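I am still getting used to backbone structure tokens and would like to learn alongside you. To get us started, please write out a protein record for me. Once you have written the record down, we can walk along the chain together.
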Amino acid sequence: MEEIKTVQNIKENKQPSNLEAEQALLGSILVNNDIIDEISTLVTSNIFYDPAHVKIFEVIESLNNKGMIANPITLKNFFEKDNMLNEVGGTEYLVKLTRFSGSA
């Protein structure tokens, strides 16, 4: 007999994820912070699968809300201050994200 999927079954399954798409979005934002205003009604941190990407996006949003620029340097400084730099992949990963941007 074929199993009927309920909402509970669906929630228990792993959410679809595309790490390359997450990297491209974050990289694009880091290259051009104006993008964050354009996507703010569509994108929230809970759409990200990778926990590091969740943290990175939350910091980007926080910096943007304070009128500050979000780039690998400002993110590095933030994460270093909170001893979280390794949790998000380190300085190299923050820089690498910008390479995933279509406009980099």
